Amino acid sequence: MFDQGRPLFLQIAESIEDSIVDGSLEEESKAPSTNELSTFHRINPATAAKGVSELVERGILYKKRGIGMFVATGARERLVDERTQGFAHAYISPLLAEARRLRLGPDDVIRLITEHGDASDRAEPVAEQTDHTDRAGPAARDDQAAHRSPQEA
């Protein structure tokens, strides 16, 4: 369930982020409490609180005294922007660097992406990942990508 190589509190924060990004936790809606998170994930409440605090510090969640934590207005857009930048850093930059080494132009790269996408569409559908707790962050994805063959990337 959890990625042993990453701190649990970061995985808790990321699972909440995932819910915000995918729309299952809407802006201005109540976020899960520390107790709910600790019970659900069977972790220490202090660990869950540290994950929630991480999101509060970043302005993704805010506290309504006596009521609980809520998703901040604009949180989804901020998270999508952050993740887009992380995606570009983890995948697009290395892709373009390799394309330059191979002397591929922009049209060649677009053609390869389109062909690969078309081939993926014809392949057997892959079940959507629903356990958001073990998605890797950009740094971990960089490490994972370095160990994959080009066909897996």
TrEMBL record:
<dbReference type="InterPro" id="IPR000524">
    <property type="entry name" value="Tscrpt_reg_HTH_GntR"/>
</dbReference>
<keyword id="KW-0805">Transcription regulation</keyword>
<dbReference type="GO" id="GO:0003677">
    <property type="term" value="F:DNA binding"/>
</dbReference>
<dbReference type="Pfam" id="PF00392">
    <property type="entry name" value="GntR"/>
</dbReference>
<feature type="domain" description="HTH gntR-type">
    <location>
        <begin position="6"/>
        <end position="74"/>
    </location>
</feature>
<keyword id="KW-0804">Transcription</keyword>
<dbReference type="InterPro" id="IPR036388">
    <property type="entry name" value="WH-like_DNA-bd_sf"/>
</dbReference>
<keyword id="KW-0238">DNA-binding</keyword>
<dbReference type="GO" id="GO:0003700">
    <property type="term" value="F:DNA-binding transcription factor activity"/>
</dbReference>
<protein>
    <submittedName>
        <fullName>DNA-binding transcriptional regulator YhcF, GntR family</fullName>
    </submittedName>
</protein>
<dbReference type="InterPro" id="IPR036390">
    <property type="entry name" value="WH_DNA-bd_sf"/>
</dbReference>
<feature type="region of interest" description="Disordered">
    <location>
        <begin position="115"/>
        <end position="153"/>
    </location>
</feature>
